[in-house]
Amino acid sequence: MTMDATFDPVRLRKDFPIFERQIHGKPLTYLDSANTAQRPQVVIDAVDDYYRRHNANVARAVHALGEEATGLYEGARRKLAAHIGARADDLVLTSGTTQSINLIAYSWALPRLKAGDSILVSRMEHHANIVPWQLVAERTGASIKVAPIHENGELDIDALKAAMTPDVKLLAVTHVSNVLGTVNPVAMICREARQRGIVTVIDGSQALPHRAVDVPKIGCDFYALTGHKMFGPTGTGALWARRELLEAMPPFFGGGEMIREVSFEGTTFADPPHKFEAGTPNIAGFIGLGAAVDYLQTIGMDAIERHESELCAYALDAMRSVKGLRIIGEAKERAAVISFLVDGAHAHDLATLLDLEGVAVRSGHHCAHPLMQFYGVPATCRASMALYSTREDIDRFVTALDKVRGLLA
Ligand SMILES: Cc1ncc(COP(=O)(O)O)c(C=O)c1O
Question: Cβ(215)–Cβ(240) under 8 Å?
Fold first, then answer.
């Protein structure tokens, strides 16, 4: 039983055709949702319906199909914006968090930062929230400062505040860690940064699939998200930004659809968000993402969060019974993402043997080398859950873990 009587993951699972599959003759136990989520039928249908019935380019044609496609595409933008408490006009559609953060790096940071300035990131960031800043630092002479974390995987808030010195112009931090599951107190962090005039970038990749996100309440300057982790198609994502920042930023890509007027004497640009959306976008993908948002809204983000939090506690309990298992990251505020290691077993060997039992977990550095260095390990295994995950998944996973541990010991 979940804490929410109306929330039934076993029923919800039926919305996801992939769970009809067997893997190596076993039922699929999918615990890799932090990597990419599975897609419900409604998302697959929305993509299919676009190609079958509405396929045309957006914002270019006055014919009926062109207007339908544009309506569906802009409708998806409105749904996604409303889902995070934002205005559609302040939401740039991108190919994912990676592109969203690079857009900030090239359009906001590169023209502004100079030698003597600093960019502050936390030790638990995904490479997508480190490498773009390193590229900016190399070209501007700015420095990267790293905010430390505690052994339990929580941010060291005192150290973070102390690191917010006058040279820091931008702070980039994840909402939820993709490795440790830590949920960072982003509203408080943004408040502290704002008092010091520091622009804030929040990486929301791992938050959107699991909890309600209200961007104005967080009070950040930029919020990046990715569609494929929140049950939408791959190659979709968004960047929300404060209007005045979007207006001041030059475009990142140039081309069709982002202009007002082009001549060889000079070009004027469309208003944001279209100023940042050159070329034909992933129309079908965003229509699918709009359907994913509808799906999440129907279930309710609070119910999803309650279910996952209860399931995470159940999983942590069950995993602690496995001999030689070490959990990495024990933050008090956490999402249902659990990194672990087993004594004497390499993470990749564990994941390979678990796969033979039908259990999909991720092994590796999870695009977070600096975090692996902090814990002194090359890799971890990671079990990550989503709204369709059940206690039966956890039971099958822990039984398989016990078995493969025996094989590797
Ligand atoms: C915390 C975090 N940030 C950024 C990304 C990058 O997302 P994408 O590859 O969809 O651009 C990921 C994906 O794993 C992530 O987990």
Answer: yes
Domain with CATH 3.40.640.10 in the chain: 45-297
CA 386 to ligand 1 centroid distance, Å = 16
Catalytic residue (choose from 220, 312, 367, 381): 367
Per-residue model confidence (pLDDT) at position 5: 61
CA distance 349 to 408: 8
- What pTM did the predictor assign? 0.97
Assign 183 to helix, strand or coil. strand
- Alpha-carbon gap, residue 203 to 218, rounded angstroms: 12
Domain 45-297 has CATH 1.10.760.10: no
Start and end residues for every CATH 3.90.1150.10 domain found in the chain: 9-30+301-408
Q: Hey, which of 126, 173, 208, 236 would you mutate to test ligand 1's pocket, going by the most ligand atoms within 8 Å of its Cβ?
A: 126
Exposure string of 39-58, with b = 16+ CB inside 10 Å and e = fewer, is bbeebbebbebbeeebebbb
Please spell the DSSP secondary structure of 80-133, one letter per residue: HHHHTT--GGGEEEESSHHHHHHHIIIIIIHHH--TT-EEEEETT--GGGTHHH
Q: What is the pLDDT of residues 189-220, one digit of tens each?
A: 999 999 999 999 999 999 999 999 999 999 99
Which two three-digit tokens encode residue 239?
């960047």
Q: Is the CB of 178 under 6 A from ligand 1?
A: yes
Give the architecture-level CATH label for domain 9-30+301-408: Alpha-Beta Complex (3.90)
Residue 190 appears among annotated catalytic residues: no
Ligand 1 in contact with 203 (CB < 6 A)? yes
Using CA atoms, how far apart are residues 365 and 371, in angstroms rounded to an integer? 8
User: Is the confidence at residue 174, as pLDDT, over 60?
Assistant: yes
Give the residue from 11, 26, 126 showing the smallest Cα distance to 354: 26
Distances, alpha carbon 194 to alpha carbons 123, 129, 147, 189, 201, in Å: 21, 20, 17, 9, 12
Cis peptide preceding 111, ω within 30 of 0: no
